[in-house]
Each structure stands twice: as structure tokens, then as C-alpha cells.
Design brief:
mainly alpha
């Protein structure tokens, strides 16, 4: 795994968590619809509606547990990545890497925050990635 892939792990995990949260919201919406249908209609032998609602709730609980596990992994991963970033010699490079890979900022935001032009940011980024790769290859 190269330096960029190592640092990007947190971004991908964060995106995965966001996707799962969206899925959870869809399930919650479906559960509300099932619940609304259940309360509006008097269904004879209503086991079918109850069963669907129970299945949806079980899926929601399972997904919530998965999201919580992912969040725990993300927190630990970000701590590890920050510890690695803090070993980079240049403070500006540390800020750049933190903005990009821990805070998930786009390049435009990074350049604006740091006050450097895009070429300078990319040059700093490349140099910092090489330093990260040297660190990771020694471990």
C-alpha cells in the first residue's frame, strides 16, 4: 500500500459510513410507512404486516450495529493516520495532509486554507507522500 492509499483509508471508510447512514434512513422511512399502513388498516390476521415491520426493524438494528463498528474503526484509523502525519518533518505538510486525509477537504479548500497556489500544494503533497511511504516501508 502506497502513502496515498494508506492515508485515503479514512476517507473511504467515512464514505462507507455515510452510505450506510443513507441506507438506514431509507429503512426508517420504510418502517414508518409499514407502521402507518398497520395503524390505518384493521388487517385480519395481521401477522404479515407485523412480520414485515419486524424484518425491517431487525435490518435497521443490524445496520446500526455495523455503522457503530465502522465509526469505532474510523476513530482508531484517524488516530493512527494522525500519528503518522505528525511524524512528517514539515509543519505545512502536516497541515496539508490533515486537511486532505483526516478532514476530507477538497483541493480547492486545502489551497484556500493554506494560502498557496495549486502547484505548490501538489508539490508539497507529493513530497509529503514520499516521506509517508518511507515511514511505512520501515515498519
Amino acid at each position: 500500500m502506497n502513502g496515498k492509499e494508506y492515508l485515503s483509508q479514512a476517507l473511504w471508510l467515512d464514505q462507507s459510513i455515510r452510505s450506510k447512514i443513507e441506507q438506514l434512513e431509507v429503512l426508517r422511512s420504510l418502517a414508518m410507512k409499514v407502521n402507518a399502513a398497520f395503524t390505518q388498516e384493521k388487517v385480519s390476521g395481521g401477522n404479515h404486516v407485523k412480520s414485515n415491520m419486524e424484518k425491517t426493524i431487525v435490518k435497521m438494528i443490524s445496520l446500526e450495529e455495523e455503522i457503530n463498528g465502522d465509526i469505532d474503526r474510523l476513530v482508531n484509523l484517524k488516530k493512527e493516520i494522525m500519528a503518522t502525519i505528525n511524524q512528517v518533518d514539515d509543519l505545512n505538510s502536516q497541515v496539508l495532509l490533515e486537511l486532505r486525509y483526516v478532514n476530507g477537504k477538497g483541493w480547492e479548500e486545502v489551497t484556500a486554507c493554506m494560502g498557496y497556489d495549486r502547484r505548490t500544494i501538489f508539490r508539497m503533497h507529493g513530497k509529503a507522500l514520499k516521506e509517508i511511504e518511507k515511514m511505512k516501508s520501515c515498519h
